[in-house]
Design goal:
The protein is of the alpha+beta class. Helix content is 61%, strand content 11%. The longest helix has 40 residues.
């Protein structure tokens, strides 16, 4: 459900406005109303800084903390942040240097580890050495007769050689060697370059070690620093949304407060005699959304938020789609063994990672649904239990369903959810616009349920064909009046009739498409079972006929195969029910959406 909000308007004397902001921040229930959406330059810079600090903090979350006797300097979160940025820059520069030096190593390898001082000494004595290479096939032996050359060696199809020249050009001949490339080598020996690389690697390891130490010792300080920055941004935004009245003597601020959290704020305002007005929101107000659901439905709020939050005057659909989503996931995965695996992994993760408790609880419920549907369809890690010769299962097989029954069940579940969504649409429209606007949807419900009921009663011979035809005409007449003539209370009959005909076309094609979409539940459940069966068959057929290696190979194939199946099938079982929820169910329930989450102006939550 959506917690009702109250709109508060505050008028505060300018001299006490700073204290007022500090106090409502301490109380922490006022969602400041956004009127000015253009942040100041200072706020923009602060927001960018917050984003960067948040990035650094998330990076530290991925580092493996190292507790060592030598504690790094962590005097403040700001210094920690700047030190980490400096380390990042040093590591980046270090990386670029290593890449450059590795390139120089590749240049020097063909020439070996010679001493450049010897080359310089020879140059001072009038003998220069020039370095060349060319493809081996293009090397011409007559060059050796024309120039003073010395071959160093061949590498990767190239010949490397040096040319010796005296200072007197008429003696040595300084003309270029056509067909060969002269090389400009690094001015350091191979061993010197490798030594530089080793020093850079050691420095990088030291910097990386310092980062891991900070991840253990300094992360709380960095978190506090991020909270301070966010708080500063919130304060600046509060001032931005404040307007000065009476020549700046009075400050005016508006905000939203949940009905369940008004008491503390009201007490403060009454004690300090601050002038305020509280009222219920108007229909056009942009009211922040705070959801309050039971323990089960609350787990599915994270899925609902993947799409959009409702607006303040419509239904929160999370409690209504939660049971369906759980059912759809189990339907799509449909293997009791996989469900047990999900429940087990979620339980272990829930104990080791308490911060993931909500997500893991959701996974437990989804795994439980998978176990139920796996037992219903008789599938356990790809094994078809219906066809398995297991004596103690014989009494349970009569409760298991076949593939044809699974198909019909998928269609049946689709019909139920679509009709349930249309009932919610009636409620939603009645709340937001008025009951008379929901008559068209009521007409469609009468038509679908009435026609289906007549068909069912005639099929079981509960009524005669003549009575069935009469009831069908009554259903068509009543639903036709609602759909074609009463679809909008403020339009004339002729416009309503035209709009109703268009609605008939849209609903007829739309409902058929929506219903067929639920076949994907059947398809996913069957494909999951087939994949598991295929890997079971592969494990049995591909294992070697060896006492030791045979079982090992079979187990490896089973583990790898079922791991792939669990991942792929779970992904499909997560995504496709989301589509059925957000497209078919939300559409038929008349969901509008566009709400903004309730975010109070408050002090950062303390962390234990």
């Amino acid at each position: 459900m959506i917690v009702p909000m109250y709109k508060y308007s505050f008028l505060v004397y300018h001299a006490g406005y700073s204290d007022f902001l500090k106090e409502i921040r301490r109380i922490g229930v006022v969602h400041i109303n956004q009127k000015n959406f253009e942040p100041t330059h200072e706020m923009q810079e602060l927001f960018r800084h917050i984003s960067d600090v948040d990035r650094v903090l998330k990076k530290m979350e991925w580092l493996t903390p190292e507790e060592t006797p030598s504690r790094p300097a962590c005097s403040s979160g700001e210094k920690v942040y700047h030190r980490i940025r400096d380390i990042e820059k040093e590591l980046e520069h270090n990386h670029h240097l290593q890449v450059h030096y590795e390139k120089e190593v590749r240049q020097m390898i063909p020439w070996g580890d010679f001493n450049w001082e010897t080359v310089e000494n020879l140059k001072q004595k009038g003998l220069s050495i020039r370095f060349y290479n060319c493809p081996v096939k293009k090397y011409q032996p007559e060059w050796e007769e024309k120039y003073y050359l010395q071959t160093i060696g061949d590498l990767d199809g190239y010949r490397y050689f040096v040319k010796l020249e005296k200072d007197a050009p008429e003696i040595s001949g300084t003309s270029e060697i056509h067909g060969a490339d002269e090389l400009n080598l690094p001015s350091r020996s191979l061993s010197q370059i490798r030594s530089e690389i080793k020093n850079l690697q050691e420095k990088a390891r030291a910097l990386d070690h310092e980062l891991h130490q900070m991840a253990f010792h300094c992360k709380p300080l960095l978190t506090d620093y991020l909270n301070q920055l966010q708080q500063s941004l919130a304060e600046k935004n509060a001032l931005l949304q404040t307007t000065g009245e009476v020549e700046g003597k009075v400050q005016f601020l508006e905000g939203w407060v949940p009905e369940t959290k008004r008491e503390a704020l009201d007490n403060y305002l009454e004690e300090e005699k601050i002038l305020y007005v509280s009222s219920k929101p108007e229909e056009e107000d942009k009211v922040p959304i705070l959801l309050k659901n039971n323990r089960f439905a609350r787990l599915y709020e994270v899925i609902g938020q993947l799409y959009d939050l409702p607006v303040h005057n419509e239904l929160d659909l999370v409690p209504f789609f939660a049971p369906f989503y759980m059912m759809f996931f189990g339907f799509s995965l449909g293997d009791a063994g996989y469900g047990l695996f999900i429940v087990l992994m979620a339980t272990i993760a829930k104990r080791k990672k308490p911060q993931l408790s909500s997500i893991m609880s959701l996974a437990q419920w989804l795994g439980l649904s998978t176990v139920i549907f796996g037992a219903l369809t008789g599938t356990f890690f790809g094994i078809n239990l219906i066809e398995a010769d297991i004596p103690w299962l014989e009494n349970f097989k009569k409760y298991m369903i076949t593939t044809d029954q699974l198909f019909n069940l998928a269609i049946g579940v689709g019909v139920v959810q679509i009709l349930f969504g249309m009932v919610l649409k009636v409620v939603n429209i009645s709340i937001t616009r008025g009951f008379m606007y929901s008559l068209s949807t009521i007409g469609w419900l009468i038509l679908i349920i009435g026609s289906g009921g007549v068909y069912g009663l005639k099929s079981i011979d509960a009524i005669t064909p003549e009575v069935g035809t009469l009831i069908q005409y009554i259903v068509l007449g009543v639903s036709g009046i609602f759909i074609l003539l009463l679809n909008h209370p403020k339009r004339n009959v002729f416009i309503n009739f035209g709009a109703g005909l268009w609605d008939v076309y849209g609903m007829t094609t739309g409902l058929l498409g929506d219903l067929l979409s639920y076949i994907r539940l059947f398809a996913l459940g069957v494909s999951s079972a087939i994949l598991g069966l295929v890997f079971n068959s592969m494990a049995l057929s591909m294992k070697p006929d060896h006492v030791i290696f045979g079982p090992i190979v079979m187990i490896l194939i089973l583990v790898i195969g079922h791991s792939i199946t669990i991942f792929m099938s779970s992904l499909g079982a997560f995504v496709h029910p989301i589509r059925l929820t957000f497209v078919e169910f939300y559409k038929n329930a008349g969901f509008v959406g566009g709400g903004k989450a309730y975010s109070p102006f408050a002090e950062p939550a303390s962390k234990s």
